Amino acid sequence: MSWLKKNSSVVWNYFINDVNNSNEAHCSLCKKTYQRSSGTSNLMEHLKRKHMTRLERDNIIQAKEKDQNEIQNSINIPGTSRASQPHDTLSTVPVVTNLTNKINSNETTIATTASEPPLKRQKQLVLSNRFGAPSELQIKAFYEAIILDSRYTIPSRRALGRTIIPNMYTNVRNKVQTLLNDTSYIAITTDIWTSINTDSFKTMTAHFFPKGQSKLKTVVMYTKNLEHSHTGAHLAQIMTSELNSWGILDKVVGIVTDGGSNIKSAVRLMDIQHIPCRPQTKSYSSTSSISQ
């Protein structure tokens, strides 16, 4: 890979030596100047503190290109059986056919194992979709939902919380992961909101075109409780970690947010293009004009 200089520290991919002062170097990402003294530890500390996401994204790209080069080299080795066979790195990835039609619907898509009876799967959908918190399972509407089969045994709260819903989540996540693996460019929208109990939550949503399709798909990546301060650095760390967990950090081309200074700072620290939310901006402009 040509972007990494041989026999030198990785910091020199992001810093330029000052031609007038050999003890200083300029960061090509933020244009700030730092002392380098006799080593690069100070420069590396700056990259980790201010450009952590950029470092991680470049490392991902480097690793992928290294893997592709190794695969290509193995294919080009003469006299091997692999050289004469087509190599498809995605041949083992299952193809999702029905999730793409449901992912934008109002009804939550829940997958269960094919071996389960259809009626049982339908009741599990009722448990997970219509209600939410297990404490609401005793209401009358739930009993009306299972009247089709009086032999059905209502799962315990323990089974629902520890087995049924986690299995549904895992199956859906795997299908969404397959869609994300097969796309090259992803846009992100994210916002922070407060519940009626004044608990703060952060939600991140991904928007993309699956390979070979022209219809935009939208999936919720996560909704998490924000237990710590909402600083830009903390929000950047959360988003970077989540994008890494889905393996799409290097695919994100833009992040749409409101005008909050903390979330704008977070996107800037991630070194990803920030896109202001147009409806929110218009609403704020209208409100400001009326108040004046």
From TrEMBL:
It comes from Macrosiphum euphorbiae (potato aphid). Coiled coil: none annotated. Keywords: Metal-binding, Nucleus, Transcription, Transcription regulation, Zinc, Zinc-finger. GO terms for molecular function: DNA binding; zinc ion binding. The keyword Ion transport does not apply. It comes from the Eukaryota. InterPro entries: RNaseH-like_sf (IPR012337), Znf_BED (IPR003656), ZnF_BED_domain_contain (IPR052035), Znf_C2H2_sf (IPR036236). Residues 6-58 form the BED-type domain. This is BED-type domain-containing protein. GO terms for biological process: post-embryonic development. Pfam families: zf-BED. GO terms for cellular component: nucleus. It is found in: Nucleus.
